[in-house]
């Protein structure tokens, strides 16, 4: 399966997807670690993809999403953003609202 198709399939199968360096248990960069902490703090149920273990996704996703860095957070297939945006949403309470809305659906 082509890499872009795998990305689309992952985004279709999970409401919240975090493409990150490392895993939620063992993040391999500070930005990924802070993003995971924000998601866990609001009780988000999310699917994580370790881009360090999948060089094709790591190379393709920035072109697909038009976002150059990792982590990348998607909700319902839409790019929310990276670490800075996720933390801004968390601090404003918006991330928690997004997660609560997903849990109702």
Automatic annotation (TrEMBL):
<dbReference type="Pfam" id="PF00462">
    <property type="entry name" value="Glutaredoxin"/>
</dbReference>
<dbReference type="GO" id="GO:0015036">
    <property type="term" value="F:disulfide oxidoreductase activity"/>
</dbReference>
<keyword id="KW-0001">2Fe-2S</keyword>
<dbReference type="InterPro" id="IPR036249">
    <property type="entry name" value="Thioredoxin-like_sf"/>
</dbReference>
<dbReference type="InterPro" id="IPR004480">
    <property type="entry name" value="Monothiol_GRX-rel"/>
</dbReference>
<dbReference type="InterPro" id="IPR014434">
    <property type="entry name" value="Monothiol_GRX"/>
</dbReference>
<keyword id="KW-0676">Redox-active center</keyword>
<dbReference type="InterPro" id="IPR033658">
    <property type="entry name" value="GRX_PICOT-like"/>
</dbReference>
<feature type="binding site">
    <location>
        <position position="70"/>
    </location>
    <ligand>
        <name>glutathione</name>
    </ligand>
</feature>
<feature type="domain" description="Glutaredoxin">
    <location>
        <begin position="16"/>
        <end position="80"/>
    </location>
</feature>
<keyword id="KW-0408">Iron</keyword>
<dbReference type="GO" id="GO:0051537">
    <property type="term" value="F:2 iron, 2 sulfur cluster binding"/>
</dbReference>
<feature type="binding site">
    <location>
        <begin position="83"/>
        <end position="84"/>
    </location>
    <ligand>
        <name>glutathione</name>
    </ligand>
</feature>
<feature type="binding site">
    <location>
        <position position="21"/>
    </location>
    <ligand>
        <name>glutathione</name>
    </ligand>
</feature>
<protein>
    <recommendedName>
        <fullName>Glutaredoxin</fullName>
    </recommendedName>
</protein>
<keyword id="KW-0411">Iron-sulfur</keyword>
<feature type="binding site">
    <location>
        <position position="58"/>
    </location>
    <ligand>
        <name>glutathione</name>
    </ligand>
</feature>
<comment type="similarity">
    <text>Belongs to the glutaredoxin family. Monothiol subfamily.</text>
</comment>
<keyword id="KW-0479">Metal-binding</keyword>
<feature type="binding site">
    <location>
        <position position="29"/>
    </location>
    <ligand>
        <name>[2Fe-2S] cluster</name>
    </ligand>
</feature>
<dbReference type="InterPro" id="IPR002109">
    <property type="entry name" value="Glutaredoxin"/>
</dbReference>
<dbReference type="GO" id="GO:0046872">
    <property type="term" value="F:metal ion binding"/>
</dbReference>
């Amino acid at each position: 399966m082509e890499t872009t198709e795998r990305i689309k399939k992952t985004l279709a199968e999970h409401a919240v997807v975090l493409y990150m360096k490392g895993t939620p248990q063992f993040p391999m960069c500070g930005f990924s670690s802070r993003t995971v902490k924000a998601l866990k703090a609001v009780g988000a149920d999310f699917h994580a993809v370790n881009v360090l273990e999948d060089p094709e996704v790591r190379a393709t996703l920035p072109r697909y999403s038009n976002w150059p860095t990792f982590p990348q957070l998607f909700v319902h297939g839409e790019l929310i953003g990276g670490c800075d945006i996720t933390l801004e949403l968390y601090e404003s309470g918006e991330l928690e609202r997004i997660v609560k809305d997903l849990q109702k659906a």
